[in-house]
């Protein structure tokens, strides 16, 4: 899967899967590892699994399979920096509202900002679907209260 049209198809699936799972409050899947929180999505030849640990501070991995072969993945680690200024529940709501707007644009990478009340959500990344790094954060009154770093790309056998 390396042609432009196949990469576009993969991007569309990833956006659809992300919107249907965490952001869309999708159903939890059977945990794939002890104490993991798993969200799964399937469409056509693709399947998606987001598996993470934690809550306020968390780490996880998203994997896309094509015909049951892993072809793309992303790892992430996020945490609340100032628990006196934002709760995990607030951060989750801001992230879901912001990412739903980003996914409406048909993408999950690239610069993006969104305001929710007194909070500002920002996402920035470098690279493309094939190989990327990025960071998202939430600020309140100019103070970064939450951050997440991520990286990922295509998997080749």
Task: Describe the fold and architecture.
With 157 residues, this protein is of the alpha+beta class. It has one domain (4-154). 22% of the residues lie in helices and 49% in strands. It has 2 helices and 9 strands, in the order H-E-E-E-E-E-H-E-E-E-E. It has helices at residues 4-20, 88-104; strands at residues 28-29, 37-43, 46-54, 57-66, 69-80, 112-116, 119-128, 131-140, 143-154. It has a 9-stranded antiparallel sheet with strand order 1-2-3-4-5-9-8-7-6, covered by helices on one side. Strand 7 and strand 8 form a beta hairpin. The chain starts with a helix and ends with a strand.
Outline:
The chain is α+β, with helices and mostly antiparallel strands and 157 residues long.
Fill in the keyword field for this structure.
157 residues; globular; nine-stranded antiparallel β-sheet; 22% helix; 2 helices
List the helices and strands and how they pair.
Layout: H1 4-20, E1 28-29, E2 37-43, E3 46-54, E4 57-66, E5 69-80, H2 88-104, E6 112-116, E7 119-128, E8 131-140, E9 143-154
């Amino acid at each position: 899967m390396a042609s432009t049209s196949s990469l576009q198809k993969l991007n569309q699936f990833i956006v659809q899967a992300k919107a249907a799972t965490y952001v869309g409050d999708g159903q939890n899947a059977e945990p794939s590892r002890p104490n993991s929180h798993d969200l799964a999505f399937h469409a056509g030849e693709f399947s998606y699994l987001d598996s993470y640990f934690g809550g306020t501070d968390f780490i996880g991995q998203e994997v896309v399979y094509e015909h049951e072969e892993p072809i793309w993945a992303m790892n992430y680690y996020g945490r609340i920096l100032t628990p006196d200024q934002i709760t995990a529940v607030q951060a989750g709501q801001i992230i879901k509202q912001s990412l739903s707007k980003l996914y409406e644009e048909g993408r999950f990478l690239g610069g993006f900002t969104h305001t929710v009340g007194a909070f500002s959500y920002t996402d920035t990344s470098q690279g493309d679907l094939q190989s990327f790094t990025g960071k998202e954060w939430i600020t309140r009154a100019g103070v970064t209260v939450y951050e997440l770093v991520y990286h990922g790309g295509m998997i080749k056998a």
